[in-house]
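User: I'm curious whether this sequence folds into something compact or stays loose and floppy. Could you predict its structure so I can see for myself?
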Amino acid sequence: MRVRYASLTAIAVVAVALVLGACGGDSTSDVESGPVGSGLAGTRNDLKSDDRLRVATTVAPITSILLQIGGDRIYLHGLIPPGIDSHTYEPKPSDAVILGRADIFIMNGASLEGSTEAIARTNLKDPSKIYKLADNTLSGDDPATGFLYDFSFPRAEGKPNPHLWMNPLYALRYAELIRDWLSENDAPNASYYAANYDAFKAVIDQLNAAIEKDSQTVPPESRKLLTYHDSWAYWARLYGYTVIGAAQPSDFKEPSAKEVADLIQQVRDEKVPVVFGSEVFPSGVLETIAKESGAAFEEKLSDDEPPGEVDAGNHTYVGMLVENMRIMLTRLGGNADTVATVPVGNTFGK
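Assistant: Here's the prediction. I'll summarize afterward.
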């Protein structure tokens, strides 16, 4: 089953935020460190000690990108743990404490983290220090260059597909923005952040070239995706794949029997070779679609959780993309030989 925290009403969230923002003090007894990765200063005291810039953020892939730029010159806390639905995540009381200590808050934007943004505006010392990555990466709705709207994120609802980070070139833009925002708020370390950006850019450039090369080994007729969640649209646009559907819409309701039947028929008609699920969010619906359509089933893609444990060498944004490509490209009939040569460890300070 999908893992969720207990839901709070918007009023309760704001009330808790106000109380904790006013009287949280310096207590750290109920505040755990976020997924900050190996080598980062701070555990239970993150966003509290010494004069380093204190940065709060949201989903694990963005936390990882931020780490590559901020390195050991910042305190960093990712509010949304790996494997938790960022769309449905409701802030915890301890999140208000963390945000009350943060100097800046960097989020994805594009309507991904509504509840978290609300609690940040209530608790952050300076609400003007809320920065949105997606909103400063794309604009407009040109299907070739702008935000994407589709079956899970319909234009009529006004909320675009927010998963820009799955496209490594947009992730690089995220890193560029992070470099600039960290430098703006911590000018003495600007050269350090710039050097870290350059190191990260070198790896992203290598990753992008490797995906382009290895994608050519996938038969053109197999470059079609049916996935557990509609998070691959920007990746597919970059590399010339078609996303024919997703079993999990943006509202996270299970598809109806008719919708499942339609997807089964579409997989047959399109001759989709593999249905891709998620190890974090298992779906019996996807298994049924694969079985009934005759497609293979693969359950280990991830759009929000780097592989391995927090201190593992591949527990990074790049590690997540490399692992996804190893699975996806080979299951679609190609290979990931070039992708496998991309370094997946932390790049900061090198």
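Summary: The radius of gyration is 20 Å. The CA atoms of residues 53 and 185 lie 8 Å apart.
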